[in-house]
Design a protein that fits this description.
Belongs to the WD repeat fritz family. This protein is α+β, with helices and mostly antiparallel strands. The chain has a domain of 216 residues. The protein contains 9 helices and 28 strands.
Protein backbone atom coordinates (compact mmCIF):
# COMPACT_ATOMS: atom_id res chain seq x y z
CA UNK A 1 0.00 0.00 0.00
CA UNK A 2 1.46 3.33 -1.09
CA UNK A 3 0.77 6.57 0.77
CA UNK A 4 -1.55 7.70 -2.05
CA UNK A 5 -3.82 4.67 -1.63
CA UNK A 6 -2.44 2.71 -4.58
CA UNK A 7 -2.39 -1.02 -3.85
CA UNK A 8 0.55 -2.91 -5.39
CA UNK A 9 0.75 -6.71 -5.43
CA UNK A 10 4.09 -8.36 -6.19
CA UNK A 11 4.40 -12.08 -6.88
CA UNK A 12 7.80 -13.75 -6.65
CA UNK A 13 8.91 -17.06 -8.11
CA UNK A 14 12.19 -17.79 -6.41
CA UNK A 15 14.49 -14.83 -7.10
CA UNK A 16 12.43 -13.72 -10.11
CA UNK A 17 9.61 -11.18 -10.12
CA UNK A 18 6.70 -13.06 -11.66
CA UNK A 19 3.79 -10.61 -11.64
CA UNK A 20 3.04 -6.98 -10.72
CA UNK A 21 -0.50 -5.66 -10.21
CA UNK A 22 -1.07 -1.92 -9.64
CA UNK A 23 -4.58 -1.18 -8.33
CA UNK A 24 -5.85 2.43 -8.11
CA UNK A 25 -9.40 1.54 -7.10
CA UNK A 26 -9.10 3.20 -3.68
CA UNK A 27 -7.61 6.46 -4.95
CA UNK A 28 -10.17 9.24 -4.52
CA UNK A 29 -12.46 7.08 -2.38
CA UNK A 30 -10.51 7.38 0.88
CA UNK A 31 -11.47 10.02 3.48
CA UNK A 32 -7.97 11.56 3.41
CA UNK A 33 -5.11 11.81 0.97
CA UNK A 34 -2.06 10.48 2.84
CA UNK A 35 -2.00 6.93 4.22
CA UNK A 36 0.40 6.58 7.16
CA UNK A 37 -0.14 2.88 7.93
CA UNK A 38 -2.05 -0.02 6.40
CA UNK A 39 -2.86 -3.58 7.39
CA UNK A 40 -4.05 -6.01 4.71
CA UNK A 41 -5.98 -9.22 5.46
CA UNK A 42 -8.28 -11.49 3.45
CA UNK A 43 -11.30 -9.84 5.08
CA UNK A 44 -10.44 -6.15 5.23
CA UNK A 45 -7.85 -3.42 4.71
CA UNK A 46 -7.26 -1.23 7.78
CA UNK A 47 -5.91 2.28 7.16
CA UNK A 48 -4.80 5.34 9.12
CA UNK A 49 -4.26 8.82 7.69
CA UNK A 50 -2.09 11.83 8.35
CA UNK A 51 -4.93 14.34 7.96
CA UNK A 52 -8.39 14.70 9.50
CA UNK A 53 -7.65 12.41 12.48
CA UNK A 54 -9.43 9.45 10.90
CA UNK A 55 -9.06 5.69 10.53
CA UNK A 56 -10.81 3.63 7.87
CA UNK A 57 -11.55 0.03 6.97
CA UNK A 58 -12.17 -1.35 3.49
CA UNK A 59 -14.23 -4.54 3.86
CA UNK A 60 -13.70 -7.05 1.04
CA UNK A 61 -16.49 -9.22 -0.31
CA UNK A 62 -14.56 -11.22 -2.88
CA UNK A 63 -15.12 -14.86 -1.97
CA UNK A 64 -16.13 -16.95 0.98
CA UNK A 65 -13.52 -16.58 3.67
CA UNK A 66 -13.04 -20.36 3.89
CA UNK A 67 -12.27 -20.61 0.18
CA UNK A 68 -8.75 -21.95 -0.50
CA UNK A 69 -8.26 -19.18 -3.07
CA UNK A 70 -9.11 -16.35 -0.68
CA UNK A 71 -6.27 -13.89 -0.46
CA UNK A 72 -4.44 -15.32 -3.50
CA UNK A 73 -5.98 -13.22 -6.25
CA UNK A 74 -3.74 -10.69 -7.88
CA UNK A 75 -6.37 -8.95 -10.02
CA UNK A 76 -7.68 -5.50 -9.15
CA UNK A 77 -10.40 -4.63 -6.67
CA UNK A 78 -13.88 -3.94 -7.95
CA UNK A 79 -15.93 -1.05 -6.54
CA UNK A 80 -18.86 -3.44 -6.20
CA UNK A 81 -17.02 -5.78 -3.84
CA UNK A 82 -15.66 -3.25 -1.36
CA UNK A 83 -17.32 -1.36 1.48
CA UNK A 84 -15.50 1.67 2.89
CA UNK A 85 -16.15 2.79 6.49
CA UNK A 86 -14.32 5.43 8.53
CA UNK A 87 -14.29 6.77 12.08
CA UNK A 88 -12.91 9.83 13.86
CA UNK A 89 -10.05 9.05 16.25
CA UNK A 90 -8.98 12.63 17.00
CA UNK A 91 -5.48 13.95 17.40
CA UNK A 92 -3.40 16.41 15.43
CA UNK A 93 -1.52 15.84 12.18
CA UNK A 94 0.44 12.77 13.31
CA UNK A 95 1.71 9.52 11.85
CA UNK A 96 -0.81 7.06 13.24
CA UNK A 97 -0.33 3.28 13.35
CA UNK A 98 -2.99 0.56 13.22
CA UNK A 99 -3.24 -3.05 14.41
CA UNK A 100 -5.88 -5.79 14.38
CA UNK A 101 -6.54 -8.67 16.74
CA UNK A 102 -6.66 -12.26 15.51
CA UNK A 103 -10.46 -12.39 15.52
CA UNK A 104 -10.45 -9.28 13.30
CA UNK A 105 -13.32 -7.77 15.27
CA UNK A 106 -11.33 -5.14 17.20
CA UNK A 107 -8.68 -2.77 15.85
CA UNK A 108 -6.53 -0.13 17.46
CA UNK A 109 -5.11 3.15 16.24
CA UNK A 110 -2.22 4.70 18.14
CA UNK A 111 0.44 7.37 17.79
CA UNK A 112 3.45 8.60 19.71
CA UNK A 113 3.26 11.94 21.49
CA UNK A 114 6.18 14.31 21.01
CA UNK A 115 7.50 16.36 23.93
CA UNK A 116 5.94 19.52 22.46
CA UNK A 117 2.58 17.82 21.98
CA UNK A 118 2.68 16.51 25.57
CA UNK A 119 3.17 20.03 26.97
CA UNK A 120 0.54 21.75 24.83
CA UNK A 121 -2.25 19.18 24.76
CA UNK A 122 -4.87 18.80 27.45
CA UNK A 123 -4.40 16.03 29.97
CA UNK A 124 -7.31 13.94 28.65
CA UNK A 125 -6.19 13.81 25.03
CA UNK A 126 -5.92 10.13 23.98
CA UNK A 127 -3.06 8.55 22.09
CA UNK A 128 -4.59 5.07 21.80
CA UNK A 129 -8.07 4.35 20.45
CA UNK A 130 -9.76 0.95 20.44
CA UNK A 131 -12.12 0.49 17.48
CA UNK A 132 -14.83 -2.10 16.90
CA UNK A 133 -14.75 -3.54 13.36
CA UNK A 134 -17.95 -4.85 11.81
CA UNK A 135 -19.09 -4.65 8.22
CA UNK A 136 -22.71 -4.63 9.39
CA UNK A 137 -22.45 -2.19 12.30
CA UNK A 138 -19.58 -0.11 10.93
CA UNK A 139 -16.56 1.22 12.83
CA UNK A 140 -17.15 2.54 16.33
CA UNK A 141 -14.81 3.89 18.98
CA UNK A 142 -14.85 1.51 21.94
CA UNK A 143 -12.38 3.11 24.33
CA UNK A 144 -10.02 6.09 23.85
CA UNK A 145 -7.13 6.10 26.33
CA UNK A 146 -4.28 8.43 27.16
CA UNK A 147 -1.30 6.36 28.26
CA UNK A 148 0.98 7.56 31.04
CA UNK A 149 4.01 7.61 28.76
CA UNK A 150 4.74 8.21 25.10
CA UNK A 151 3.99 5.07 23.08
CA UNK A 152 6.98 3.42 21.44
CA UNK A 153 5.13 0.26 20.38
CA UNK A 154 1.59 -1.10 20.69
CA UNK A 155 0.07 -4.38 19.51
CA UNK A 156 -2.50 -7.03 20.38
CA UNK A 157 -1.47 -10.04 22.42
CA UNK A 158 -1.09 -13.24 20.42
CA UNK A 159 -2.68 -15.38 23.14
CA UNK A 160 -5.43 -13.07 24.48
CA UNK A 161 -7.62 -11.50 21.80
CA UNK A 162 -8.61 -8.44 23.84
CA UNK A 163 -5.31 -7.65 25.54
CA UNK A 164 -2.96 -4.91 24.36
CA UNK A 165 0.80 -4.91 24.90
CA UNK A 166 2.55 -1.55 24.91
CA UNK A 167 6.04 -0.19 25.40
CA UNK A 168 5.94 3.35 26.79
CA UNK A 169 8.61 5.94 27.46
CA UNK A 170 7.61 7.39 30.85
CA UNK A 171 7.20 11.14 31.03
CA UNK A 172 8.69 13.45 33.64
CA UNK A 173 7.65 16.91 34.88
CA UNK A 174 6.37 19.18 32.12
CA UNK A 175 5.91 16.28 29.71
CA UNK A 176 9.63 15.71 29.23
CA UNK A 177 10.64 12.12 28.57
CA UNK A 178 12.72 10.41 31.24
CA UNK A 179 14.49 8.53 28.45
CA UNK A 180 16.61 6.12 30.50
CA UNK A 181 13.89 3.48 30.89
CA UNK A 182 10.68 2.16 29.35
CA UNK A 183 7.54 0.59 30.77
CA UNK A 184 6.16 -2.65 29.35
CA UNK A 185 2.42 -2.52 30.02
CA UNK A 186 -0.54 -4.87 29.56
CA UNK A 187 -4.05 -3.51 28.93
CA UNK A 188 -7.30 -5.45 28.67
CA UNK A 189 -10.63 -4.44 27.18
CA UNK A 190 -13.56 -5.53 29.34
CA UNK A 191 -16.89 -4.05 30.39
CA UNK A 192 -16.65 -1.37 27.76
CA UNK A 193 -13.35 0.08 28.95
CA UNK A 194 -9.62 -0.44 28.53
CA UNK A 195 -7.96 -1.29 31.86
CA UNK A 196 -4.23 -1.42 32.58
CA UNK A 197 -3.42 -4.75 34.22
CA UNK A 198 0.32 -4.45 34.82
CA UNK A 199 3.43 -2.39 34.13
CA UNK A 200 7.07 -3.48 34.34
CA UNK A 201 9.90 -0.96 34.16
CA UNK A 202 12.93 -1.83 32.02
CA UNK A 203 16.06 0.21 32.81
CA UNK A 204 18.16 1.25 29.82
CA UNK A 205 21.66 2.72 29.46
CA UNK A 206 20.50 5.14 26.75
CA UNK A 207 17.21 6.61 25.44
CA UNK A 208 15.26 4.22 23.17
CA UNK A 209 14.76 4.87 19.47
CA UNK A 210 12.84 1.86 18.17
CA UNK A 211 11.15 -1.25 19.52
CA UNK A 212 10.04 -4.67 18.31
CA UNK A 213 8.28 -7.47 20.15
CA UNK A 214 8.84 -11.17 19.60
CA UNK A 215 5.92 -12.99 17.98
CA UNK A 216 5.55 -15.09 21.13
CA UNK A 217 5.25 -11.89 23.24
CA UNK A 218 7.98 -13.27 25.51
CA UNK A 219 10.65 -10.63 24.85
CA UNK A 220 11.05 -7.02 23.74
CA UNK A 221 13.96 -5.74 21.66
CA UNK A 222 14.90 -2.06 21.98
CA UNK A 223 17.22 -0.02 19.78
CA UNK A 224 19.05 2.74 21.67
CA UNK A 225 20.65 6.05 20.76
CA UNK A 226 24.12 4.86 21.78
CA UNK A 227 24.21 2.37 18.86
CA UNK A 228 23.25 -0.65 20.92
CA UNK A 229 20.29 -3.00 21.27
CA UNK A 230 18.77 -4.50 24.42
CA UNK A 231 16.76 -7.72 24.50
CA UNK A 232 14.59 -7.98 27.61
CA UNK A 233 12.89 -11.25 28.54
CA UNK A 234 9.62 -10.19 30.16
CA UNK A 235 8.90 -13.50 31.88
CA UNK A 236 12.34 -14.04 33.43
CA UNK A 237 13.38 -10.41 33.88
CA UNK A 238 16.66 -10.94 32.01
CA UNK A 239 18.27 -8.28 29.79
CA UNK A 240 20.95 -8.81 27.15
CA UNK A 241 22.98 -5.99 25.59
CA UNK A 242 24.75 -5.94 22.22
CA UNK A 243 26.59 -3.24 20.28
CA UNK A 244 25.74 -2.20 16.73
CA UNK A 245 28.02 -0.69 14.12
CA UNK A 246 25.43 2.05 13.52
CA UNK A 247 22.49 3.71 15.33
CA UNK A 248 19.56 1.28 15.01
CA UNK A 249 16.31 2.69 13.62
CA UNK A 250 14.52 -0.43 12.34
CA UNK A 251 14.00 -3.87 13.89
CA UNK A 252 12.43 -6.95 12.26
CA UNK A 253 12.09 -10.23 14.17
CA UNK A 254 12.17 -13.40 12.13
CA UNK A 255 8.78 -15.06 12.80
CA UNK A 256 10.46 -18.15 14.27
CA UNK A 257 11.95 -15.92 16.96
CA UNK A 258 15.57 -17.03 16.59
CA UNK A 259 16.97 -14.07 14.64
CA UNK A 260 16.39 -10.33 14.35
CA UNK A 261 17.47 -7.96 11.58
CA UNK A 262 18.58 -4.49 12.67
CA UNK A 263 18.59 -1.66 10.13
CA UNK A 264 20.00 1.85 10.05
CA UNK A 265 19.03 4.96 8.12
CA UNK A 266 22.20 4.80 6.01
CA UNK A 267 21.17 1.45 4.50
CA UNK A 268 23.10 -0.80 6.90
CA UNK A 269 21.90 -4.19 8.10
CA UNK A 270 23.04 -6.44 10.96
CA UNK A 271 21.68 -9.80 12.09
CA UNK A 272 21.65 -11.03 15.70
CA UNK A 273 20.58 -14.36 17.09
CA UNK A 274 18.26 -14.65 20.07
CA UNK A 275 21.29 -14.67 22.38
CA UNK A 276 22.31 -11.24 20.99
CA UNK A 277 25.41 -12.58 19.24
CA UNK A 278 25.96 -11.15 15.73
CA UNK A 279 25.43 -13.40 12.72
CA UNK A 280 27.83 -12.89 9.83
CA UNK A 281 26.11 -12.37 6.48
CA UNK A 282 27.34 -12.24 2.89
CA UNK A 283 25.75 -11.93 -0.52
CA UNK A 284 25.90 -15.02 -2.71
CA UNK A 285 29.05 -14.82 -4.84
CA UNK A 286 31.94 -16.92 -6.08
CA UNK A 287 34.14 -15.63 -3.25
CA UNK A 288 32.02 -15.30 -0.15
CA UNK A 289 33.36 -12.94 2.52
CA UNK A 290 31.01 -12.95 5.54
CA UNK A 291 30.84 -9.75 7.57
CA UNK A 292 28.81 -8.61 10.56
CA UNK A 293 27.42 -5.58 8.69
CA UNK A 294 25.85 -5.61 5.24
CA UNK A 295 26.24 -2.25 3.46
CA UNK A 296 23.43 -1.97 0.93
CA UNK A 297 25.01 1.15 -0.61
CA UNK A 298 27.74 -1.08 -2.04
CA UNK A 299 25.18 -2.98 -4.09
CA UNK A 300 22.59 -0.33 -5.04
CA UNK A 301 22.66 3.42 -5.57
CA UNK A 302 19.81 5.09 -3.71
CA UNK A 303 19.80 8.52 -2.10
CA UNK A 304 16.84 7.77 0.18
CA UNK A 305 17.36 6.04 3.49
CA UNK A 306 15.96 2.71 4.65
CA UNK A 307 12.46 3.22 6.05
CA UNK A 308 10.98 -0.21 6.74
CA UNK A 309 11.81 -3.91 7.11
CA UNK A 310 9.11 -6.53 6.68
CA UNK A 311 9.28 -10.30 6.34
CA UNK A 312 7.40 -11.49 3.26
CA UNK A 313 3.93 -13.05 3.24
CA UNK A 314 3.75 -16.63 4.47
CA UNK A 315 6.12 -15.82 7.33
CA UNK A 316 4.07 -17.91 9.74
CA UNK A 317 5.60 -21.06 8.29
CA UNK A 318 8.49 -21.32 10.73
CA UNK A 319 8.59 -23.57 13.76
CA UNK A 320 6.65 -21.00 15.80
CA UNK A 321 4.07 -20.27 13.10
CA UNK A 322 0.52 -21.63 13.38
CA UNK A 323 -0.61 -21.52 9.74
CA UNK A 324 1.75 -23.86 7.90
CA UNK A 325 3.59 -22.94 4.74
CA UNK A 326 5.50 -24.15 1.70
CA UNK A 327 7.43 -27.38 1.78
CA UNK A 328 11.09 -27.25 2.70
CA UNK A 329 13.98 -29.37 1.38
CA UNK A 330 13.11 -32.19 3.79
CA UNK A 331 9.44 -32.25 2.80
CA UNK A 332 8.34 -30.43 5.96
CA UNK A 333 7.17 -26.84 6.27
CA UNK A 334 9.77 -24.27 5.29
CA UNK A 335 10.40 -21.08 7.19
CA UNK A 336 10.24 -17.59 5.72
CA UNK A 337 13.38 -16.53 3.92
CA UNK A 338 12.55 -13.22 2.20
CA UNK A 339 12.87 -9.81 3.84
CA UNK A 340 11.28 -6.80 2.14
CA UNK A 341 13.24 -3.53 2.18
CA UNK A 342 11.42 -0.21 1.75
CA UNK A 343 13.46 2.89 0.86
CA UNK A 344 12.44 6.53 1.09
CA UNK A 345 11.07 7.40 -2.35
CA UNK A 346 11.49 3.82 -3.58
CA UNK A 347 12.30 1.30 -4.77
CA UNK A 348 11.08 -1.89 -3.11
CA UNK A 349 13.73 -4.57 -2.67
CA UNK A 350 13.83 -8.05 -1.20
CA UNK A 351 16.65 -9.84 0.56
CA UNK A 352 16.42 -13.60 0.33
CA UNK A 353 18.24 -15.68 2.95
CA UNK A 354 19.71 -19.01 1.86
CA UNK A 355 18.94 -21.15 4.90
CA UNK A 356 20.58 -24.31 3.58
CA UNK A 357 19.54 -27.95 3.39
CA UNK A 358 20.89 -28.95 6.82
CA UNK A 359 18.32 -26.76 8.58
CA UNK A 360 15.45 -28.07 6.46
CA UNK A 361 14.62 -24.56 5.32
CA UNK A 362 13.95 -23.50 8.91
CA UNK A 363 15.49 -20.85 11.10
CA UNK A 364 14.23 -21.62 14.59
CA UNK A 365 16.33 -21.57 17.78
CA UNK A 366 17.08 -25.29 17.54
CA UNK A 367 18.32 -25.09 13.95
CA UNK A 368 20.40 -21.99 14.70
CA UNK A 369 21.97 -23.67 17.74
CA UNK A 370 22.93 -26.73 15.69
CA UNK A 371 24.42 -24.52 12.99
CA UNK A 372 26.48 -22.67 15.61
CA UNK A 373 27.88 -26.00 16.81
CA UNK A 374 28.73 -27.08 13.25
CA UNK A 375 30.76 -23.89 12.89
CA UNK A 376 32.51 -24.45 16.23
CA UNK A 377 30.82 -21.41 17.82
CA UNK A 378 30.04 -23.09 21.13
CA UNK A 379 29.81 -19.91 23.21
CA UNK A 380 27.23 -18.48 20.80
CA UNK A 381 25.34 -21.80 20.85
CA UNK A 382 25.16 -21.64 24.65
CA UNK A 383 23.80 -18.09 24.34
CA UNK A 384 21.00 -19.38 22.10
CA UNK A 385 20.34 -22.21 24.57
CA UNK A 386 20.06 -19.80 27.49
CA UNK A 387 17.49 -17.73 25.60
CA UNK A 388 15.21 -20.70 24.89
CA UNK A 389 12.08 -21.23 26.97
CA UNK A 390 11.42 -24.52 28.75
CA UNK A 391 7.69 -23.79 29.07
CA UNK A 392 7.19 -23.02 25.36
CA UNK A 393 9.31 -25.77 23.76
CA UNK A 394 10.74 -28.20 26.35
CA UNK A 395 11.78 -30.85 23.83
CA UNK A 396 13.67 -28.29 21.76
CA UNK A 397 15.44 -26.91 24.85
CA UNK A 398 16.42 -30.38 26.02
CA UNK A 399 17.65 -31.21 22.53
CA UNK A 400 19.80 -28.08 22.55
CA UNK A 401 21.16 -28.87 26.02
CA UNK A 402 21.97 -32.41 24.90
CA UNK A 403 23.70 -31.20 21.72
CA UNK A 404 25.87 -28.64 23.54
CA UNK A 405 26.94 -30.97 26.36
CA UNK A 406 27.65 -33.86 23.99
CA UNK A 407 29.78 -31.56 21.85
CA UNK A 408 31.79 -30.26 24.82
CA UNK A 409 32.22 -33.64 26.53
CA UNK A 410 33.97 -34.95 23.41
CA UNK A 411 36.65 -32.27 23.70
CA UNK A 412 39.63 -31.89 26.01
CA UNK A 413 38.61 -30.08 29.17
CA UNK A 414 39.78 -26.49 29.54
CA UNK A 415 38.77 -23.64 31.78
CA UNK A 416 36.61 -22.11 29.06
CA UNK A 417 34.90 -25.40 28.15
CA UNK A 418 34.30 -26.13 31.82
CA UNK A 419 32.51 -22.78 32.16
CA UNK A 420 30.45 -23.52 29.04
CA UNK A 421 29.43 -26.93 30.41
CA UNK A 422 28.38 -25.28 33.67
CA UNK A 423 26.33 -22.71 31.76
CA UNK A 424 24.64 -25.38 29.63
CA UNK A 425 23.65 -27.52 32.62
CA UNK A 426 22.66 -24.37 34.51
CA UNK A 427 19.85 -23.86 31.98
CA UNK A 428 18.06 -26.66 33.86
CA UNK A 429 19.64 -26.56 37.32
CA UNK A 430 19.89 -22.76 37.75
CA UNK A 431 17.24 -21.07 35.57
CA UNK A 432 16.43 -17.38 36.08
CA UNK A 433 12.85 -18.35 37.00
CA UNK A 434 11.45 -21.55 38.56
CA UNK A 435 10.63 -24.34 36.13
CA UNK A 436 7.17 -25.95 36.26
CA UNK A 437 7.23 -29.05 38.43
CA UNK A 438 5.87 -31.21 35.61
CA UNK A 439 8.87 -30.29 33.44
CA UNK A 440 11.25 -30.94 36.32
CA UNK A 441 9.79 -34.40 36.90
CA UNK A 442 9.96 -35.20 33.18
CA UNK A 443 13.52 -34.05 32.49
CA UNK A 444 15.34 -34.51 35.81
CA UNK A 445 16.64 -37.99 35.00
CA UNK A 446 17.80 -37.27 31.41
CA UNK A 447 19.56 -34.07 32.48
CA UNK A 448 21.11 -35.73 35.54
CA UNK A 449 22.73 -38.21 33.13
CA UNK A 450 24.67 -35.33 31.57
CA UNK A 451 25.53 -33.97 35.02
CA UNK A 452 27.02 -37.36 35.95
CA UNK A 453 28.98 -37.42 32.69
CA UNK A 454 30.29 -33.96 33.53
CA UNK A 455 31.33 -35.29 36.95
CA UNK A 456 33.36 -38.14 35.45
CA UNK A 457 34.78 -35.73 32.85
CA UNK A 458 36.08 -33.65 35.76
CA UNK A 459 37.55 -36.76 37.40
CA UNK A 460 39.41 -37.75 34.24
CA UNK A 461 41.04 -34.33 34.17
CA UNK A 462 41.75 -34.39 37.94
CA UNK A 463 39.42 -31.48 38.76
CA UNK A 464 38.71 -33.08 42.13
CA UNK A 465 37.51 -29.97 43.96
CA UNK A 466 34.88 -29.12 41.34
CA UNK A 467 33.86 -32.79 41.12
CA UNK A 468 33.38 -32.88 44.91
CA UNK A 469 31.13 -29.81 44.81
CA UNK A 470 29.11 -31.26 41.93
CA UNK A 471 28.62 -34.49 43.87
CA UNK A 472 27.47 -32.45 46.87
CA UNK A 473 24.66 -30.98 44.82
CA UNK A 474 23.73 -34.22 43.07
CA UNK A 475 23.64 -36.00 46.47
CA UNK A 476 24.64 -39.31 44.88
CA UNK A 477 26.65 -41.75 46.99
CA UNK A 478 27.99 -43.57 43.92
CA UNK A 479 29.65 -40.37 42.70
CA UNK A 480 31.35 -39.85 46.05
CA UNK A 481 32.64 -43.42 45.97
CA UNK A 482 34.01 -42.89 42.45
CA UNK A 483 35.75 -39.77 43.72
CA UNK A 484 37.01 -41.70 46.75
CA UNK A 485 38.74 -44.37 44.66
CA UNK A 486 40.23 -41.93 42.12
CA UNK A 487 41.46 -39.55 44.82
CA UNK A 488 43.01 -42.44 46.77
CA UNK A 489 44.87 -43.59 43.64
CA UNK A 490 46.23 -40.06 43.17
CA UNK A 491 47.35 -39.76 46.79
CA UNK A 492 44.64 -37.26 47.82
CA UNK A 493 44.04 -38.97 51.15
CA UNK A 494 42.04 -36.18 52.83
CA UNK A 495 39.73 -35.78 49.86
CA UNK A 496 39.29 -39.55 49.53
CA UNK A 497 38.29 -39.88 53.19
CA UNK A 498 35.90 -36.93 52.95
CA UNK A 499 34.24 -38.42 49.86
CA UNK A 500 33.79 -41.76 51.60
CA UNK A 501 32.24 -40.09 54.65
CA UNK A 502 29.83 -38.16 52.43
CA UNK A 503 28.81 -41.38 50.65
CA UNK A 504 28.12 -43.05 54.00
CA UNK A 505 26.09 -40.03 55.16
CA UNK A 506 23.92 -40.12 52.04
CA UNK A 507 23.30 -43.85 52.42
CA UNK A 508 22.37 -43.43 56.06
CA UNK A 509 20.06 -40.52 55.26
CA UNK A 510 18.41 -42.53 52.47
CA UNK A 511 17.87 -45.46 54.79
CA UNK A 512 16.37 -43.21 57.45
CA UNK A 513 14.14 -41.63 54.83
CA UNK A 514 12.84 -45.03 53.72
CA UNK A 515 12.11 -45.91 57.35
CA UNK A 516 10.21 -42.64 57.77
CA UNK A 517 8.11 -43.37 54.71
CA UNK A 518 7.28 -46.84 56.02
CA UNK A 519 6.10 -45.25 59.29
CA UNK A 520 3.88 -42.85 57.35
CA UNK A 521 5.90 -39.74 58.14
CA UNK A 522 5.67 -36.77 55.77
CA UNK A 523 8.85 -35.33 54.34
CA UNK A 524 8.69 -31.52 54.45
CA UNK A 525 9.27 -29.58 51.23
CA UNK A 526 10.44 -26.04 50.68
CA UNK A 527 7.69 -23.45 50.55
CA UNK A 528 9.31 -20.99 48.19
CA UNK A 529 11.94 -20.63 45.51
CA UNK A 530 14.71 -18.08 45.38
CA UNK A 531 15.62 -17.72 41.70
CA UNK A 532 17.84 -14.70 42.38
CA UNK A 533 20.25 -16.37 44.78
CA UNK A 534 23.89 -15.94 43.80
CA UNK A 535 25.97 -19.04 43.41
CA UNK A 536 28.62 -19.27 46.07
CA UNK A 537 31.96 -21.00 46.17
CA UNK A 538 32.53 -23.81 48.61
CA UNK A 539 34.69 -21.77 50.96
CA UNK A 540 32.42 -20.32 53.58
CA UNK A 541 29.31 -21.53 51.79
CA UNK A 542 27.61 -22.70 54.96
CA UNK A 543 28.01 -19.41 56.80
CA UNK A 544 27.39 -16.63 54.24
CA UNK A 545 23.79 -15.74 53.31
CA UNK A 546 22.71 -15.81 49.67
CA UNK A 547 22.98 -12.56 47.76
CA UNK A 548 19.92 -11.19 45.98
CA UNK A 549 19.72 -9.00 42.92
CA UNK A 550 20.53 -11.45 40.14
CA UNK A 551 17.04 -11.75 38.72
CA UNK A 552 17.50 -8.95 36.21
CA UNK A 553 20.71 -10.17 34.65
CA UNK A 554 21.74 -13.31 32.87
CA UNK A 555 24.62 -15.06 34.56
CA UNK A 556 27.70 -14.43 32.38
CA UNK A 557 29.81 -17.31 31.15
CA UNK A 558 32.75 -17.38 33.53
CA UNK A 559 36.09 -18.37 32.09
CA UNK A 560 37.99 -20.75 34.30
CA UNK A 561 37.24 -19.35 37.73
CA UNK A 562 39.34 -21.46 40.13
CA UNK A 563 37.45 -23.12 42.95
CA UNK A 564 39.14 -23.72 46.29
CA UNK A 565 37.66 -26.20 48.72
CA UNK A 566 37.90 -25.18 52.34
CA UNK A 567 39.34 -27.85 54.65
CA UNK A 568 36.21 -27.43 56.73
CA UNK A 569 34.20 -28.59 53.74
CA UNK A 570 36.00 -31.93 53.75
CA UNK A 571 35.28 -32.63 57.39
CA UNK A 572 32.14 -34.23 58.73
CA UNK A 573 29.98 -31.36 59.99
CA UNK A 574 28.97 -31.47 63.60
CA UNK A 575 25.50 -30.82 64.84
CA UNK A 576 23.90 -31.45 61.42
CA UNK A 577 20.81 -33.56 61.10
CA UNK A 578 21.51 -36.69 59.16
CA UNK A 579 18.67 -35.82 56.73
CA UNK A 580 19.96 -32.28 56.02
CA UNK A 581 21.71 -32.08 52.63
CA UNK A 582 24.97 -30.29 51.97
CA UNK A 583 23.62 -28.78 48.77
CA UNK A 584 20.65 -28.85 46.47
CA UNK A 585 19.66 -27.61 43.05
CA UNK A 586 18.84 -23.95 42.68
CA UNK A 587 15.75 -24.58 40.59
CA UNK A 588 13.57 -25.04 43.63
CA UNK A 589 13.40 -28.82 43.66
CA UNK A 590 14.64 -29.20 47.25
CA UNK A 591 12.70 -31.95 48.97
CA UNK A 592 10.28 -32.36 46.08
CA UNK A 593 12.50 -34.76 44.15
CA UNK A 594 14.53 -37.86 44.92
CA UNK A 595 17.67 -38.63 42.99
CA UNK A 596 18.65 -42.25 42.45
CA UNK A 597 21.98 -43.63 43.59
CA UNK A 598 22.68 -46.26 40.97
CA UNK A 599 25.30 -48.22 42.85
CA UNK A 600 23.28 -49.00 45.97
CA UNK A 601 19.68 -48.62 44.77
CA UNK A 602 18.80 -46.04 47.41
CA UNK A 603 16.70 -42.94 46.83
CA UNK A 604 18.28 -39.87 48.37
CA UNK A 605 15.69 -37.17 49.12
CA UNK A 606 17.06 -33.67 49.54
CA UNK A 607 15.13 -32.58 52.63
CA UNK A 608 14.58 -28.95 53.58
CA UNK A 609 12.54 -27.82 56.53
CA UNK A 610 9.73 -25.35 56.00
CA UNK A 611 11.03 -21.80 55.98
CA UNK A 612 14.69 -22.79 55.82
CA UNK A 613 17.20 -21.29 53.36
CA UNK A 614 18.12 -23.45 50.41
CA UNK A 615 21.83 -24.35 50.27
CA UNK A 616 23.82 -22.96 47.34
CA UNK A 617 24.61 -24.76 44.12
CA UNK A 618 28.27 -25.30 45.01
CA UNK A 619 29.63 -26.52 41.69
CA UNK A 620 28.66 -23.40 39.73
CA UNK A 621 31.41 -20.82 40.22
CA UNK A 622 30.42 -17.33 41.32
Amino acid sequence: MLSSGVLVTLSLSGPQLEHVCVDRTLVGRLPAGTVTDALLTDRLILLSFLENGQAAAVFLNRKKQDSPEAGRRTDKLSPSEIKLLSVEVGGAKLRRRVALNRLQDVALCWWSRSAEDSRTSDEHRPDLVLIGCSAAEGLQVLSPVQTEGSLLDCCFSGSHHYQLLTVEVPGGPGGLSLGSCVDSCVYEYRRGRLHRLSAARIPLPSPPVCCSRQRSDAAVLLGLQDSSVVLHDLGRGVSLHASCAFPPTLLAWHPAGAMVVVGGEQQELMCFDVGMAPLNVALVAEEVVPTATLQLTQHMSRSGGLRRLQWAAGADAGPAGPDGGPAGPDGGPAGPDTLMLVFEGGPLASLRFKLGALTGGRLGPGELLQQRLRCGQVREAVGVLQAMDWSAAPEEVYGGLSAVTNHLLKLQLSADREALLEAALGVFYAPPAPLPETLVLEYQEPVSTYARRFFHHLLRHQRFEKAFLLAVDLQDSSLFMDLHYVAADKGEVVLADAAERKANEIRAAAGAGDDDLLRGRTVPTPSSHRPGERNRTAAGASSKPPTAGRTNQRRPLSVGVPVTVSPEMLKTPTGRSRNAPSGSFRNGLGGKLRRSAVSDGYFCPSVLCEGSKRPPLHWLSS
